Amino acid sequence: MNESQRQRTATRWIATAFAVSALGAFTLAGTYVAGGQPQVEGASLAVSLAGLGTGLIVWAARLLPEQTVIGPREPLQSTAEEREEFAESFDPGEEMFGRRRFLLRMLTLAAGALGVAALFPIRSLGPSPGTKLKHTAWRKGSRVTNQSGKGVKVGDLDVGGVLTVFPEGHLDAANAQTLLIRVGDDEVKPLPGRETWSPEGYIAYSKVCTHAGCPVGLYRTDDHQLLCPCHQSTFDALDGAKPVFGPAARPLPQLPLQVDESGYLVAQDDYGEPVGPSFWNRS
Amino acid sequence: MIVKRVARFFDDRLRASRFARGVLNKVFPDHWSFMLGEIALYCFVVLVGTGVYLTFFFNASGRQVVYHGVYKPLRGQHMSAAYQSVVDISFKVRAGLVMRQIHHWAALVFIAAIIVHMCRVFFTGGFRRPREINWIVGVTLLLLAIANGFTGYSLPDDQLSGTGLRIMFSIVLSVPVLGTWAAFLLFGGDFPSEDVIGRFFAFHIMLVPGLILAVLAAHMALLWHQKHTQFPGPGRTEDNIEGSRLWPTYALRSTGLFFMVAAVLAALGGLAQINPVWLYGPFRPAAVSAGSQPDWYVGWLEGALRLMPGWELRAFGHTVPFNLFIPGVVLPGVTFGMLYAWPFLEARFTKDHAVHHLLDRPSRRPFRTAFGTGALTFYMVLFLAGGNDVLAETFSISLYAMTTVLRVAIFVLPPAVGFFTYRIAKELSRGPVKPLANPVGYHVRRDADGGYEEITPTAADLARVEGDARPAPVPADRFEGP
Question: Is the pTM of this model over 0.80?
């Protein structure tokens, strides 16, 4: 093939690519008008763009002269002379300011004060943390309810069962979410001081992981382990939810339970410690 | 001709001819690896285009609504207005889903292209004097790109992104002294807060993209002023630059590349489903699904959170959760600190403060190359750890065994890979560097009588090796037509 033949072939290819591109664009517009279909839209857009791209690249490779060019690279450093000239222009001004020591100090003061004052509006971005992280909506006598707000009675959960519960009237309180499990009466081995917290085999732990705050959503009944699906912190439900694997450093706080006179599960009190991930002034 | 008249209009007022001519004659190196940064640039263009379209339909509000839209499985469910608008973009807005998916894919490829580009610059020493400034600008771009990726990922307010926000909140909370206040000010209160979507929307569509645009402009301006580096080769020196002229060759090639990048993103966005938020459901603080994975560029942080043992410091009435603070704050801080400092550390370590426009072969710099591969291995192990549950399930290994193996690997593999890289690079750099292209050798031929005949290469063959046979490059400011 001689040069002119090669150019003719290349021209045909490029023209074909542009034609395919135009077809893709028509298909895209047609699909949109016909009501839209994501796959066809994406594919026809891709064909249209790829046709344009292919045409241009073949054009550059086949029809333009392959010409390597070379250019000079000037030094990026100023010459000593240029620096001196710069200094000549700069120094007098600097001197004029530099002499006014007192005014410069006052200027720094004013600019600094304004800078500090400008930081104050940041405070509007959020409320004070106060003690919000230290308490949940659980109170003495709060009825334990499921996620649709229905109270949980002693007979509601079988041994081996698990339920996500909230204090009555606080279904949207994310940090009050609690995991209620029921184990056999003989399996309960309460920690010292928590002997009365798990009536009828019901044990309640905060569902907010003490690592990064994800819901501890998985409960393995056979070995009574609670697993956080985010980072796989694993807690032993029979041993005060002590962490046995993964990045969590603290047990899940336990909610003290009791059964009221009408057979409903209620809280004896709020959690005795902040739930969820640790923070500086936690304790 | 209209072009001429427009050009004349501007030139009459700006005296731009001289500058514009310099632009047209700018020399771009021909090596493919110089196009990696362009891929990132073109992803950004696609991101802005699709992103603007999405802002017209997205509702950045955490207000709770009940869904009555076209997607039946979600009807009657409580969700935020933000989530509802994303479901509407996906099912109700014509061309909305394909735009959303192209946008998401473009973000993933954007950050990948930045990192591959950065690896090229690192391993070839492109960051050395006088380009330390542009390295710093580039690292800042990576930081901003990740920030924009994360804030964008958080906007749909689906189950997965809400879980990501929950973890983010906890990480901010873990900072000693300031953490509690910082978290409440950033999120507008305790988690989950209704304000956070609107806030991250402002970050995602205004603040961070604006910064990216400004820093990107600085990146390009510095590149333009300092000119490209180039690989060593015959005729290439520290005082020249060889390649193709911008006009017309490189302009055409690069525009072609833009359309190809956009084509790949369009194909992905149309044919490869990404982030189907309607399957994840609206965010509920008490729900979570196993196998929750963030977007790939956050995988290393997620992995670090999973590998970290349960350490926590409790003293003097204060708590520092190392299990969050080290992987969530210290690790990214050290990572970006090292990236920013590398050009200066290396110059101090090697006592090489000279100006370099010719790039290194990675094998000629065994220590840098070994450090780089070791570091990449470190982040690769973290990335794998970010999916340890998926890996464990795929290969039917116990999750705990998997985590333990990775906890060991994070200390063993990076030094091992670094050591082997060092040895290989040393070995390679011992011999002279021979280009593999156009090899020429002395042939020995056995003739019919059993004798041997040596065929020596001709002068033309040898010249090919030396590179003399190529047409001599012409000066960039003199155009020679075909």
Answer: yes
